[in-house]
Amino acid sequence: MNILAINSSYRGDKGHTGFLIDKLFQGAKAAGAECQVVTLASLKINRCLACGKCRTAEHHLKCVHDTRDDIAAVFRQMSRADIIVYATPVYVFGLSGLLKTFLERFYGQGDSKDLRISRSGLMFYHVDHSICSKPFVTLVCCDNLENETPKNVLSYFQTFSKFMDAPQVGVLVRNGGRLSGHGLDPEREKRVPRILDVYAAYEQAGRELATIGHIRRSTERRANQEIVPVPLFGILKRLRPFKKTIIERTGDDMSPRQFGHKKLPCLSILTFV
Ligand SMILES: Cc1cc2nc3c(=O)[nH]c(=O)nc-3n(C[C@H](O)[C@H](O)[C@H](O)COP(=O)(O)O)c2cc1C
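# flavin mononucleotide complex -> structure
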């Protein structure tokens, strides 16, 4: 199995997104997969100019940028992969700008004169399936704990899957990034064992991608679990009175050590940081 991750964090491979990809790939490599990461922040990816040249007979399906930036090399890597991992932090409630800029370059891979109906019954034009229709995993991370935060990214990739005929073979959503220390604070991880269980689930997800080509629902649930060690937090956090309690009992320090003293994380993790 050949798995390619597209890391779209502005922090490149030094950020939380890169850390989570590493965890996923530790499991995938151990199970025999060949894994590669494309770090968009370290490449030159020009934005689509909407010039329409790719729609003309002269430049049919060729982008004016193709020889001026790194996109062609990334598309070649994608066409060799069996599974793509689209990995993005939430940036102001949506995909990272780098990922959106990258995905907009798919425009040059579509033939608007050749209309088709996708497997989901949607009218769309022909796209290069070897690039756009690969089975893919959505990996999204954010700091906020509200379910609303990653919604736009998840919805985007559902729509992408339907139009592109690209099967979504896993969804990894990691909230509470700041609370967990973004993978950079081993002390914090020791104090909140759920964080370590999340990372173990990422490795398991990698093994499943390598061996069965998708992530099992049970593994997704483990990887996507709440890390705040308050019983029923997933349900409680939907309730306004509970949020008020959090706000009232909040401290300035959001160290998980506080949970041992029955204090709850501070407001800044419920709003975004
Ligand atoms: C420009 C910018 C916007 C952000 N917007 C949000 C947001 O809307 N919601 C949220 O929960 N976190 C937000 N964050 C935090 C990141 O999603 C979070 O820290 C993530 O783990 C960063 O991943 P990275 O280290 O790979 O870049 C934002 C960060 C930046 C730099």
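# post-check
Residues 9-11, 15-17, 89-93, 141-144, 149, 177, 182, 272 surround flavin mononucleotide (CB under 6 Å).
Residues 2-227 form a domain with the Rossmann fold fold (CATH 3.40.50.360).
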